[in-house]
Design brief:
CATH class of chain A: Mainly Alpha
Radius of gyration of chain B: 24 Å
Number of domains of chain B: 1
Number of helices of chain B: 12
CATH class of chain B: Mainly Alpha
CATH superfamily of chain A: MetI-like
Structural class of chain A: mainly alpha
CATH topology of chain B: MetI-like fold
Largest interface: A-B, 92 and 91 residues
CATH architecture of chain A: Orthogonal Bundle
Distance between the termini of chain A: 46 Å
Shape of chain B: globular
Structural class of chain B: mainly alpha
Order of helices and strands of chain B: HHEEHHHHHHHHHH
CATH superfamily of chain B: MetI-like
Oligomer: heterodimer
Order of helices and strands of chain A: HHHHHHHHHH
CATH topology of chain A: MetI-like fold
Strand order of the largest sheet of chain B: 1-2
Number of strands of chain B: 2
Helix content of chain A: over 70%
Number of strands of chain A: 0
Radius of gyration of chain A: 24 Å
Number of domains of chain A: 1
Helix content of chain B: over 70%
Distance between the termini of chain B: 58 Å
Number of helices of chain A: 10
Shape of chain A: globular
Chain lengths: ~290, ~300
């Protein structure tokens, strides 16, 4: 540490100035948050109505339109995403935590890190090239797969981390009682870490629930109900995007309502995940 | 004992298969980008990266305006976000009582989860009008400087940068605070015992100790800003030109993908867009690798004091 020049008085003044700046930075960050939440709440609540949840989008100028198809579309997309992302992320994570010491595990972790860093729009391109162009149509299925791919790294890492927190004494106890390794993992290790794992899976779902970019050219959009899984579908994020950049006041109001609903969904999942964690991520050996 | 062994083998092979599928998926994404951009790479070669004609009608494509827009918005966003994020991280880690700091950090971490399209929504209706008046005021005072010249739309390079900054600040705060909290208490006590003020302790002991972790958090924010699509698309003006003015509309790599991908009817056009995706993929790959390296170093060598 180099000697610090200046009188004590001056040093205290510098300290005061720098810490005031730090305090202001904190106040700004928290202020932006409160402003953001408050602004969306005010505009969203003003625009929300029952018809938002029950009606199809109305033609421009006609009142009473809603986003019912987008809400259902988002739910269907997230269902597909979970069916893709949870098994691969969860069971892959089990492998990494319980067997993963070799170079295979190293490369899997590396691949997951890379996948985690890929911009979401690029995932959209890949799924477009793999599932949309060859099959010839945009679909709920393709949108769900795109989001599912984005869930994998988060789910994988969470599962591995929380299973590693499970004390080895639990594994040893089960093995000593004569249980095969796989029964030990399924009946003892996973139940002990399940709370943390569910949290991780919820966070993974929350992360993709608000994603728009990968849906633009996989699920596309739709102003009507989307039948089955093989047709283009509306989704809440894409609908908000479309409505926000359109020139109609009525659509802007709908976008605010949609924004509020989406924000509540995502923040709700996050808060739920944290509440789950409060009781401790892993049951102890005790 | 045979059936037990069989169960183990099946379970292990099954989980291994799913783990390997992660490898396959990442490989497939990279391969698809490479294969699908082949037409454009053959047609334009490396000049794709430094020519600035983007003409879907004549099928001439150069990605420079998008690369410029992405790098410029990211740079400006970090220039705005890093001081604020670091200041807040110091405040939350060193100054405030733990209970208060934990509460505020919880709120700030929620901000990380806000979907980018929601940021975009607020950007379009709040930030753009606000920036229009701010930019007008700045131009009246400093309009002779090229950076602040030209017509004012409200949407543009600077607006996108400000919105990006708002989006990455929570990221920087959350990661940096963790890193600062990991600095051993003895380091702080030693500095204070030597007669340092608390600021001098932060400046000369805590920050140098946490340096690589903080840099890592900045690189994570960088990666996020580079790939950010929706919010930027909504406020940057989407014009593929390189302008001297910060107020002028611009375009980014992610934004052009969002806007033009479904409209690309010609194979070369589509390949050019995929190549932009490939460039974006390559850049974020490098940035993420650096971030991981930096953050990993803090965790592994706790004796790396300055």
């Amino acid at each position: 540490m180099t000697p610090i020049p200046g009188s004590y008085r001056r040093r205290r003044i510098v300290e005061g100035v720098m810490f005031t700046a730090a305090g202001l930075a904190t106040a700004t960050s928290v202020g932006v948050l409160l402003f953001l939440l408050g602004y969306i709440a005010v505009h969203g609540v003003a625009a929300l109505s029952l018809s938002f949840f029950t009606n199809l989008p109305a033609p421009v100028g006609e009142p009473g339109g809603g986003m019912a198809n987008a809400i259902v579309g988002s739910a269907k997309i997230l269902l597909v995403a979970a069916m893709v992302g949870v098994p691969i992320g969860f069971l892959g994570g089990v492998y990494l935590a319980e067997y993963g010491r070799g170079s295979v595990a190293f490369w899997v972790r590396y691949a997951a890190d890379v996948l985690n860093g890929v911009p979401s729009i690029v995932i959209g391109i890949a799924v477009y090239a793999l599932l949309v162009r060859p099959l010839g149509h945009f679909s709920t299925f393709a949108g769900g797969v795109a989001l599912g791919l984005m869930m994998i790294p988060v789910a994988l890492r969470a599962t591995e981390e929380f299973l590693r927190l499970v004390p080895d004494s639990l594994r040893e106890a089960a093995l000593a009682l004569g249980a095969p390794t796989w029964v030990t993992i399924m009946r003892v290790v996973i139940p002990a870490g399940i709370r943390g794992i569910v949290t991780g899976l919820l966070l993974a779902l929350a992360r993709v629930a608000g994603e728009t970019a990968p849906l633009l050219f996989t699920a596309l959009n739709n102003r009507f109900w989307s039948p089955g899984w093989r047709a283009p579908t509306a989704s809440l994020p894409v609908m908000i995007f479309t409505y926000a950049i359109a020139p109609y006041d009525d659509w802007h109001r709908q976008a605010w309502a949609g924004g509020l609903v989406l924000l509540m969904l995502v923040l709700g999942l996050n808060v739920l995940a944290r509440v789950l964690m409060r009781g401790g991520a892993v049951r102890s050996a005790g | 004992m045979r059936p037990r062994r069989l169960g183990d083998i099946i379970f292990r092979a099954g989980t291994l298969g799913l783990a390997l599928s992660v490898l396959a998926i990442t490989g497939t994404v990279a391969a698809v980008l490479l294969l699908q951009s082949r037409l454009a790479r053959e047609a334009f070669g490396w000049s794709f990266l430094w020519t600035s004609t983007w003409d879907p009608v004549a099928l001439r494509f150069g990605a420079l305006p998008f690369i410029y827009g992405t790098l410029m918005t990211t740079f400006l966003a970090l220039a705005l976000a890093v001081p604020v994020g670091l200041g807040a991280a110091v405040c939350l880690a060193e100054l405030l009582p733990l209970r208060v700091a934990d509460g505020l950090t919880f709120l700030i971490e929620l901000l990380v989860a806000v979907p980018s399209v929601v940021y975009g929504l607020v950007g379009v209706f709040v930030l753009v009008p606000a920036m229009r008046s701010v930019e007008t005021a700045v131009q009246n005072a400093l309009g002779f400087i090229p950076l602040f010249s030209g017509p004012i739309y409200g949407v543009g390079l600077l607006t996108a940068s400000v919105l990006l900054a708002v989006m990455v600040v929570p990221f920087i705060i959350a990661v940096s605070r963790e890193v600062l909290l990991a600095v051993p208490q003895t380091q702080r006590e030693a500095a204070l015992a030597l007669g340092a003020t608390r600021w001098e302790m932060v400046r000369h002991v805590v920050l140098p100790y946490a340096r690589s972790g903080i840099l890592g958090s900045i690189f994570l924010a960088l990666a996020r800003a580079l790939g950010e699509t929706m919010a930027v698309t909504m406020v940057i003006g989407n014009r593929p030109e390189i302008s001297a003015s910060l107020f002028a509309p611009a375009y980014t790599m992610a934004a052009v993908l969002a806007n033009e991908f479904t409209e690309a009817t010609d194979d070369v056009y589509l390949a050019a867009l995929v190549e932009i995706g490939l460039v974006l993929f390559a850049i974020t790959l490098v940035v993420n690798a650096i971030a991981r390296l930096l953050i990993g170093r803090v965790q592994r060598s706790p004796s790396a004091a300055a």
